[in-house]
Amino acid sequence: MDRPASDYVIEPTPIPAIPVAGSDQFFPVHRVYCVGRNYAAHSVEMGHDPNKESPFFFQKNPDNLDTSGQFPYPPASNDVHHEIEMVVALKSGGRDIPVEKALDCVYGYGVGLDMTRRDLQGKAKDMGRPWEVGKAFEASGPCTPLVPAGTIGHPTQGVIWLDVNGERRQTGDLNQMIWKVPEMISYLSGLFTLRPGDIILSGTPAGVGAVNRGDVLNGHIDGVGDLEVRVV
């Protein structure tokens, strides 16, 4: 329910939002769900067996998403990694959404990065603690403006890659995702009530690695777009 600012004991923060490509409109962000180890080769490089895992998710904060083109190197870490991903934005939601109806919920797509303080994430894993310190820090979700599905359709295949300073680091194909977009939406809706404005980061291919201040990251997904981010 909308309320005037005077009803709050402190001034409300602005609604996190992502620009819509080719428009002066914005997509308001409700929650950010990230699927883990959704490409088999990445699961293997992280020391896991993709044949023995069910889908699992962690969250970033809505205001972690950033379209400025700059990634401020975060404090408390000396091992920050890039993870290129397709961004999925939902225009509707619900509970227990059937797989065959899931794409009806999708507003559009973008190119994003799940930046990760790998050293802090590793310590959290070793101690059986949550991952937020490694995943949900400021500006940890660089992304492009969203492209509506009405314009590009629903990408199910196409090359996804990331270069760092002109050197190819990650490459894969959307068809290599273990859990496809409809399956992710359906599975998530059995755990949470999905809402318009929800974002899903759909997983990263193999080749994740460290970045340094001054690096330039260029990412691409066929049919979706291109992302350029400078580490500052």
List keywords for this structure.
single chain; 232 residues; alpha+beta; Fumarylacetoacetate hydrolase, domain 2; six-stranded mixed beta sheet; five-stranded mixed beta sheet; 14% helix; 31% strand; globular; Fumarylacetoacetase-like_C; metal-binding; isomerase activity; isomerase; 5-carboxymethyl-2-hydroxymuconate isomerase
Describe it.
Residues 32-232 form the Fumarylacetoacetase-like C-terminal domain. It comes from Phyllobacterium brassicacearum. This is 5-carboxymethyl-2-hydroxymuconate isomerase. This protein has 232 residues and is α+β, with helices and mostly antiparallel strands. It has one domain: Alpha-Beta Complex (Fumarylacetoacetate hydrolase, domain 2). Helices cover 14% and strands 31% of the residues. The strands form 5 sheets. Strands 4-3-15-8-9-12 form a 6-stranded mixed sheet. Strands 6-18-17-13-14 form a 5-stranded mixed sheet, with no helix packed on it. A 3-stranded antiparallel sheet has the order 10-7-16. A hairpin with a 2-residue loop joins strand 13 and strand 14. The termini are far apart. The model has no long low-confidence stretch (mean pLDDT 94).
